[in-house]
Amino acid sequence: MFRFRRYRVFLAFAVFVVLALYKFGSSNSSWRDRATSFAQSHRENADPQVKWEPNPQVAKETKQFGVEVPAAKNPQVKETPPPIASVARPAKKTSTSEPGIKSIPVGVGVGVGHAALDDLQSSSLEAIHWIKSKEQYPVLTESLIALPTAKPKHIPKIQAEFKKETDAEKADREAKLGTIKDVFKRSWSGYKEFAWLHDEVLPVTGSKKDPFAGWGATLVDALDTLWIMGLKDEFEEAVKAVETIDFTTTSRFDIPLFETTIRYLGGFLAAYDMAGKKHEILLTKAKELAEILMAAFDTPNRMPQTYYYWQPDLSSNSHPASNRVVLAEIGSLAMEFTYLAQLTGEDRFYDAVARITDNLEGYQNHTRLPGMWPTYFDASGCLQYNYNTDVNKPLQKPITAKDPGWEEALKNGAYLKADPSKPLVMPAQDDSAATAGEELSPDGKKYIPLKKPPPLEIVPNGPNPTWKPPPEESFVWPGDAKVAPQKRQLAAAGFPSDPETTALKPTCDNPGFGPSSSGGREEYTLGGMSDSTYEYLPKQYLLLGGQVEKYRTMYEVSAGVMKKHLIFRPMLPNSDDVLFSGKRFISEAEPGEPATTELEPEYAHLTCFAGGMFGMSAKIFDRPKDLEIAAKLTKGCVWAYNMTATGIMPEAFEGVACESRKNCPWNQTLYYEILDPDHENRQTQYEEGMKNYEVRLKSASLWYDEAMQAYMESPTPTPMPISVKTGVALSAAEPTAAASSPLDKRQLTDLEYAASPAQNGGVDVDSEPADEEDSPTKVQPEVEDIEEPIPSKVMPTFPAIYSPSVPLSHEEFVKTRLLEERLPLGVTRIKAREYILRPEAIESVWYMYRITGDPYWRAAGWRMFEAIDKHTKTAHGNSAIDDVTKTSPNLNDSMESFWLAETLKYFYLLFSEPGVVSLDEWVFNTEAHPFRRPT
């Protein structure tokens, strides 16, 4: 029966809620209007001078977010920008002291290319643009290292004398050329359709990305390939598109100096020269870009910031070079800036990279592996010791207000006489008479001597202070405001970390290089982070016509160390006579102890360039023995291509290094030992485990026997019923409720609990007198006693004891590992299984064919091409793959610009006539851009 008194409160509340919902739900707009009117009336009454209006409705944004790029106003097809990548940096607004420059949030996102900014025209925000500012650490005219302009020395020929091909050979070669060209055209079409003016196309999904500042990396990188393949219409179209690139802005916070130099600057210069120097826009764009990159060299020791923070409010601050630079990133700029100096006649471009070479030369014999450089070192100039040798000309210290009349003289055009030993002078502002025989300025005025800053003192192997208090007139570093730099900022730049210092300017002007840290291991390699520095030594020698001998000396010293400490013969099942180049790790030596050295027998795809480098250097430096090393290094890469299921070399793998290069027989026992070095421990552990298992088994058996005996000897007692109320055992003669009731114990207990208030402490849960009609009806007589049986005695269970699993034998383990990891015989580990369309292997194959004329190299190259195209081909180009050891690898949807700039170019040149881009006329930078050798 429904008990109204108990639920009347809930009923009243429910009626109230229903009425409220009805009232307010049917008059939604009216009560909002009244609320608005009330609020407005209240505000106006409170302050008659303030007229309050409700907030306007916010319209949905229907326009695209955009930025106007001045250099991109030419009509072109609008493109949808890629998704903006999230970054870990906090979003903040940048500011600039330059008038008319508006800022965009710094957190817009790294990786969105500048070419995508033309899609963001509708935004009220404008892009930040780089602004050329006055150099803080200028190189004076008399201190510039001049570009050598003398007649080139005689350099031996590189290319072989080729025999005339037969008609059948020509037809076969041209058919292969056509196939390679078709692959290029498919990739170029995919880029043009889906990523035009962006850095790279995603060849699987037909999208785009901008990892290299968004200045159309693929477009610029492929210019000379278009010309070489005879695709002149496509070349002209690409050159026209180049005009829209604006190098003064990018969505990246920094400009990667190395990648920008080899891809963009090298691409412009090569295309300009190869096309007959008729497209002036290419050289113009190269100079525009170089002006920005040169700003990265404005450091106290003129060593570049390898990642240049270009935005005005960042670039205007003084910064030293990094105290932990990558060797390849600072040592692989020489060719591009030298070639730019040759084409423009401006020595400052050559000076910038010649100083790096001087420092490399000075540091070369002071490393832990003399003759080579570690992958990381300190280029900041904040060193205790300077390893620099003779520098062509001294670098001048920056000008300060302490030098009387100097800064003003620069503004008014100071005049420097031809003789740098004489003081700097400028024309007088008055018409004072000149003494007899006194030299006059071109306009007939006498000169006033000016104080000239002293040259930078270079102390070989001597102490050099890392900092000194700046003059009061100096501006504050790192910002314009006089605030104390943070400790971490100062420590990272090599300065004292006193937070009370308020006006510090970096004065780490020691130009030398040194170790990046005093402890840990240093890595020496021809692979990633080092490769192109060594490659550029003989190539720079060629580009300068042999006029700078130090490039040859530095290469020959390093080559001797490479052959002794890095190059090894791998142990292979067929005893193949090939060579690999590994890594050498050297730990810092303890006082009085020799340094710890270790060779890691790794072979990486990036290292495959070494065959071409050794081969070319063997010819130009007359080192015939090195030509044999070059052939074996290149054959090692060919072997690595042939060893996998796809016919493509993995990114990196390890093998077994033989002690001798002449005798290296296959040793299966040693190979198995390296693959399974713990087989003896594994067997020993199994035997010890079995002994332990037998002991536990015997102990458990004894316990079980005793427990069974006790079980058998101890009779099981007869269970007696127990009273629920009293807990006392009932006699067998007393009747139990369970015997007379069809309900089980739990049902009876529940009924007894519900029927008796005493079970709840004697209080009714309703807390109100119960009406007689509300009293529950008894459905079961009250139960007095319930039987609670005593459980029976359980028979003991034998303990669970597990024996150790039988291990695989040494041979079974090795075979299983070879199968599961898909390891070719001779390979002990594949460190990186992907292939990202790299060119280094085919690069050396092409060099060896041009140097020797041996058709073996063409046959090897064609097998490589077929394997690559088969497994990387997509509808819109070719894509990187995830695992070359699979028969059907997955596509990674990535096509870097070097696929068109290098890989396909080398394949095409391999089957071109030998005179096409002859090595006796051209020298290639590390991105395969040909620079004309001086004649």
UniProtKB/TrEMBL annotation:
Residues 765-774 have a biased composition (Acidic residues). Residues 74-100, 419-456, 494-523, 755-784 are annotated as: Disordered. One of its GO terms (cellular component) is endoplasmic reticulum. Gene3D superfamilies: 1.50.10.10. It is an enzyme of class 3 (hydrolase). GO terms for biological process: carbohydrate metabolic process; ERAD pathway. GO terms for molecular function: calcium ion binding; mannosyl-oligosaccharide 1,2-alpha-mannosidase activity. Keywords: Calcium, Disulfide bond, Glycosidase, Hydrolase, Metal-binding. Ca(2+) binds at T926. Its EC number is 3.2.1.-. It comes from the Eukaryota. Its cofactor is Ca(2+). The active site is at E259, D531, E651, E840. Pathway: Protein modification; protein glycosylation. InterPro entries: 6hp_glycosidase-like_sf, Glyco_hydro_47, Glycosyl_Hydrolase_47, Seven-hairpin_glycosidases. SUPFAM superfamilies: Seven-hairpin glycosidases. Disulfide bonds join C608-C637. Belongs to the glycosyl hydrolase 47 family. This is alpha-1,2-Mannosidase.
